[in-house]
Amino acid sequence: MKKYGVRRRETCRICGSSHLEPYLDLGDQPPSNSFISAAEVAGEQRFPLRVYLCRQCGLSQLLDLVSSEDIFDEYAYLSSTSRALCAHYQGLVDQALALFSVPEGALCADIGCNDGIMLNRYPAGRMRLLGIEPSSAGEHARAAGHQVVQEFFDAKLGARLAREHGRVSLVTSTNVFAHVDDITSFARGVAEWLADDGVWVIEFPYLVDTVDRLYFDTVYHEHLSYLALTPLARLFAQVGLRAFRVERVELGASGPALRLFVCLDGSARAEDASIQAMLSAEADWGITEPQRYHAFAERVAETRQRILALLAELKAKGETVAAYCAPAKGNTLLNYLGVGPDDIFAVSENNDLKIGKLTPGTHIPVISDQDLLDSKTGYALLLAWNYLDFFLAHSDFIKAGGRFIVPLPEPVIRP
Ligand SMILES: [Zn+2]
User: Fold this and answer.
1) Given this model, what pLDDT does residue 387 score?
2) In whole angstroms, what is the distance from residue 209 CA to residue 215 CA?
3) Which of 46, 135, 139, 322 is geometrically suited to a Cys-Cys bond with 380, CB 3.0 to 4.6 A?
4) Distance separating alpha carbons of residues 337 and 287, to the nearest angstrom
5) E strand or H helix at 262, and its extent?
6) Contact 248, 258 (CB under 8 A)
7) What's the 152 CA to ligand 1 centre distance in angstroms?
């Protein structure tokens, strides 16, 4: 079975400060996508899952780094299987092309292009497109006809791409940036590559939502930084970039997200009022203040108790309970709850790579959606809560009379 390595950081990955305060401890957990067979249970590894606040720049971050090569290779997430996500990215590409009058034939790129979900959203033949994807998922983008560089993006690669392909007019990276340890090198690479009037669009889960809406299950080992504008503005200034527009979007790849538009510091692009508005909102909110985060951790612990009470109540009534979908964040929640197969007898999934295995840490069998239907289970803990509306409308489980236990932000049963 696969062996994971762990490395410990001692300083903030943006400002280098060692003034780091832990505020959320979710215990020792296996890497969130490390589904295992029954024979592998004994050798399973766990690593601390703990979030720290940098008192100097306000970046929330993990300092225990599980080696990323191991994490990314096997369960390379194929984004295009999600129709909701395709529609979301179509909106992003259409918006960027319309707002920034990107000329025909200009170079447009997606860093962390996965199976080509973003590149496929561009009007055919109008732009020169390039994907960057270190994992094997890039093969699917290549099969769809895209040019893909299979490497991790950093300052060196950004400079090389500028030489080999020319400067980039529009570059996107969605749900990638928060997964990178050396984000300074990543941002510097974009600065090296960006055309004078080029735009970098980044999307990531917003720390303020994570805290206010209690989305603590977005904490897992692959997710190294919990981002907000204040620390990012500092990072950009360090590498010759600046943010000039920001907006909140309800549906990113893993829930509500921030969409940030960044340009070269010397670019003629004017700064939108949204930037100062968000910076002052974050200051008022207390982005560098530990009290805000300790209160969050207390609410997380209370919510855990409430979810467990709800599960116990159903069990006392003689109901069997399953879980629905097995995304990375679902494993954070299951491990933090401390449940096992006695509490949740199975998790249903449509990913063939996971079916037949056990969930990491909690060892709950993963079954197919059809097997869940055949089991006549009445209740399922919805681990992919960000798709609640979609599953309420479309899932066979609900059509067959099943009900979801929605864990966050308030544990409730729907419909
Ligand atoms: Zn810092």
Assistant:
1) 84
2) 7
3) 322
4) 27
5) strand 255-264
6) yes
7) 23
Bridge partner residues of 248 (DSSP): 258
Rounded Cα gap, residues 76 and 142, in angstroms: 15
Which residues are registered as beta bridge partners of 347?
323, 366
Q: What is the pLDDT of residues 216-238, one digit of tens each?
A: 999 999 899 999 999 999 999 99
Residue 208: partners with Cβ closer than 8 Å, 6 or more residues away:
228, 282, 285, 287
297 CA to centre of ligand 1 in angstroms: 20
List alpha helices for 4-101, DSSP H: 68-73, 83-99
Alpha carbon of 218 to ligand 1 centroid (Å): 21
Q: pLDDT tens-digit profile of 6-48?
A: 999 999 999 999 999 999 999 999 988 889 999 999 999 999 9
pLDDT tens readout for residues 119-161: 999 999 999 999 999 888 899 999 999 999 999 999 999 999 9
d(CA 7, ligand 1 centre) in Å? 19
Annotate 67-99 with b (16+ C-beta within 10 A) or e (fewer).
Answer: ebeebbeebbbebbebeebbebbeebbeebbee
Q: How far is the CA of 301 from the centre of ligand 1 (A)?
A: 26
Q: How far apart (Å, rounded) are the C-alpha atoms in residues 301 and 24?
A: 10
Give the pLDDT band (50/70/90) at residue 299. very high
CA of 207 to the centre of ligand 1 (A): 15
CA of 274 relative to ligand 1 center, distance in Å: 23
Q: Please report the domains of the chain, with CATH numbers, ordered by start residue.
A: 79-269 (3.40.50.150), 291-414 (3.40.50.720)
Rounded to the nearest angstrom, the distance between the alpha carbon of 14 and the centre of ligand 1 is 5
Q: Which residue has the tokens 């996965």?
A: 114
Ligand 1 centroid vs 228 CA: distance in angstroms? Answer: 12
Residue 85 Cα to ligand 1 middle (Å): 32
Q: Does the bond joining 415 to the residue before it have cis omega, within 30 degrees of 0?
A: yes
Mean pLDDT confidence for 381-390: 90
Distance CA 135, CA 75 (A): 10
Tell me how far apart the alpha carbons of residues 21 and 367 are, in angstroms, rounded to a whole number: 40
Q: Is the pLDDT of residue 107 over 70?
A: yes
Q: Which two tokens stand for residue 20?
A: 């780091």
